[in-house]
Amino acid sequence: xxxxxxxxxxxxxxxxxxxxxxxxxxxxxxxxxxxxxxxxxxxxxxxxxxxxxxxxxxxxxxxxxxxxxxxxxxxxxxxxxxxxxxxxxxxxxxxxxxxxxx
Length: 102
Description:
- The protein is mainly α.
- It has a domain at 20-79.
- The chain is built from 3 helices and no strands.
- The protein has helices at 8-36, 40-57, 59-85.
- The chain is rod-shaped and about 90 Å long.
C-alpha cells in the first residue's frame, strides 16, 4: 500500500472547508431568528459572517459572530415590541369605539 502524502496547503484548505461548514451550522440560528423576527439584514449578515469567520478562524470567530448578531436581532425585536405597547390605536372613523374619559 502506498503512502498518502498531503501538503500543508491542502491541509489548510480542508480545515477551512470544515470550519466553514461549522460556520454554517452556527449561522443558521441568526438567519432563522432574523427571518422570524422580521430583521433579515442582521440575519443574513450574521449567517455570512459566521461562514467567513469559520473559514478564517474556526469556532473562535464563527461562534462570537453568530452570538452577537443573534443578540442584536433579539434586542431590536424587544425594543420594537416595547414601543408598540403604549401606542394609542383609537380611530376617529369608528363610531362604535368608546374613548376613555379625560
